[in-house]
Amino acid sequence: MSPELHINLANLRSNVRFYKEMIKSNVEISAVVKSNAYGLGITKLVPALEKYGIKIFFTATLAEAIKVRKCSPHSEIFTLNGFDFQNSDLYLEFDITPVVNNLLEAKKFTEIFDQSHKTALQINTGMNRLGFNEKTLVDHFDIINSLPLTLILSHLACADDVPNKENKMQRDLFSRLCKNLPNTRKSLSASHGTLLGSEYHFDMVRPGIGLYGGLKTNGLKQVIQIKVPVLQDFVIDKDMQVGYNFTYKAKKTMKVATLAMGYADGLPRILSNRGKLFSGNKSCPILGRVSMDLVTVDISSLPDTPNHLTVFSPEYHVDNFAKDCRTISHEVLVNLGERIKRIYSE
Amino acid sequence: MSPELHINLANLRSNVRFYKEMIKSNVEISAVVKSNAYGLGITKLVPALEKYGIKIFFTATLAEAIKVRKCSPHSEIFTLNGFDFQNSDLYLEFDITPVVNNLLEAKKFTEIFDQSHKTALQINTGMNRLGFNEKTLVDHFDIINSLPLTLILSHLACADDVPNKENKMQRDLFSRLCKNLPNTRKSLSASHGTLLGSEYHFDMVRPGIGLYGGLKTNGLKQVIQIKVPVLQDFVIDKDMQVGYNFTYKAKKTMKVATLAMGYADGLPRILSNRGKLFSGNKSCPILGRVSMDLVTVDISSLPDTPNHLTVFSPEYHVDNFAKDCRTISHEVLVNLGERIKRIYSE
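The joint structure predicted for all components is written out below.
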C-alpha cells in the first residue's frame, strides 16, 4: 500500500487558460516541464498541455528533452541547462533546440551545426547563474550574431517579490541588451514574472509551477492531492512515546494512526512533530519523527479511523505545506517519490 | 549534462563483511533494501548483496518486494509495511513473506493462506508505529499462535543513541514477549542496533543504511560519491548578486561556477548560502539559493575551473552533508533524484 498522487488535469487546463488570458494574442505561451514536469510526469503532462494549446516546452537537460520529444512529435523543445555539445547528434536526431549559455557553447554550436538547426541564447541580466553577460555579448557580438537564433531569453531573480525594484532593472537591462538582436523572439518571464504585467511578457512567457498548482494566487487552481493509506490504528496511553528517538510523549490517552508515507515519498523529515495530515478539513498532527516509509498522526479528533488521510486540504494548499517544510512548492513537488502512484483525472 | 552517482560495490562488500564479522556464526544477516535500496537501485544492489552472501531482504512495500524477486529468484523477501491482503495473490505468485503488523492482517492471513505460506510477525516494543502490543498479543494468542511464523521482529527507536536506557528496555520487552513463541527466528536490530552488541542480535540482524555508507563509524566505508558537471564559470565583481531573490552579494571580485545539480536532484534548498561542493579536499561554498536544476559556488580558491566538483570529500562524509541539511543520511540517500545517472564500480 502506497500513497496516490491525484493529478487534476481539468485544473491544469484551467491554469493554462489563466495564463493565456493574461497575455496578449501575439505573445506565445510555453510550459516548463523540467524535473519530470515538476514531479507530475512528463509522459502524461506534455500531451495534456499540448491538448490545451501549448506547443513549446522547456526542460533542463537533453535527456528530459528527448523524453518530451517521444510524447510530442511536433512541439518546439528547448534545453535550459545549455548546449551539451558532446551529444550534439541527439539535438539533430530529436530536433531539440539548445539554449546557448556561454561563449564555449556558442563556438561549439557554430562549429558543429549549419544555419538550419536553430538555437536560443540566454542572457545573464543579474542572477549570475547562466547566460552571457553584457561584456561578453559586446566583445563577441560577431559570434553571437552569426548564430541561427530563434529565441533570446533571460530569467528574473525576484519575480515572486512584486515591489522589488530589481525586477524592473532586470527587465530594462534585458530590453537594452536585446536591441542589437532585433529579429528574434524574446522571453523573460516564468510563472511569477508573467503576473507582473504585460511589460514583462515580451514575445513568450514560460510558466511552470503556476500551471501545476504551486502558486497560491487568485485564479490559479490546485492541481494535486495526495491520498495516504492508513496501515494501522491504536490507542496509546499517557506517557507512551512515538517514533524514532521517542521525540513525542503522549500527554493523555489518544488514538493514533500509522500511514504509508515517509520522507522517501516526499513527506520531509522536517515535518516531524510539526506537520499534519487531513481528513477533509480536520487536521491530524504528526506525532514524533517522520520515518523513511511511515508517519504516525493523532486521529483522536476523528469519529472513526479513515481508510486514508490527505496531505493537502481545501484550505491547506501546496504552498502552505511548503512553508511548513521551510521551503517552496517547487521543492515539494519534485521530491514526491517514485513509489507514489500517479493517477490522472480529467 | 547531469550529475553522476558513483556507487562503490567493493566498499559495499566491505561493509557487508563488517556486519558479518560482528555477528556470531548462528546469526543470519539480511539487508534492508526499501526505497529502491536507499536510492542506490534495487536491480543492481540486490544481486551484488547476494554475491556477498546475503539471502534475506526487507522492503517496505509489496511492489518493492516484487522488484527484488525479479532480480533474486531464491532469496527470502519480507514486506515491513504489513500484509497488503487485497493483493494476497501476489505474495503467492512472487513468494513474498508479509510481516503481519496487526490483528486484522493476522485474521486475513489465516483466512486466505494455508500453513504452507509463511509469515512474519512484528511486535510493538515501544515505538508505537507498527506491530502488536503486549495486550493484543495476549488477548489473541490463539490467532497469533496459529500463524505459520518464520520470523518475529521488532524495531529499536533509539539505537543510534548508545547509552539510552530505552534500548535495553525495548530489548528486554522483546525477549519477554517472544518467550511464548519459542520456535521462531527473532530479529530486533538494524544498522545501529547491531552495533550495540551481541545481546541485540538474536537470530537475525537487518542492516540498511550502514551497508550503504551512511554511518560514520570506524570500519564502515563510504559507498557513494556524486560528481557534478560544471556548466559555466565567470567572474563577478564586488556587490554583484547571485541566484533567486539575490540572497548573496559579493564582498569582492570572485570566480564562480554554476553546476548541473539542484534540489530536484537531491541537493536540498536548505543548503542555500550554507552548503559546499568539493574539488578534492578543497571546499567551494554555495552562493545564494540552490535552484531546482542548478547551483552556483565560489571557485576562487581553485587554480583552474574543474570539469566537475563532488558532493562529498574524503573528510566530508554523507553524514556530515546530512547534518548540514539538518537531517540524517537516510533522507539524503533516498532524495537523490531520478536524473542522476547511477554508475557502479567493483
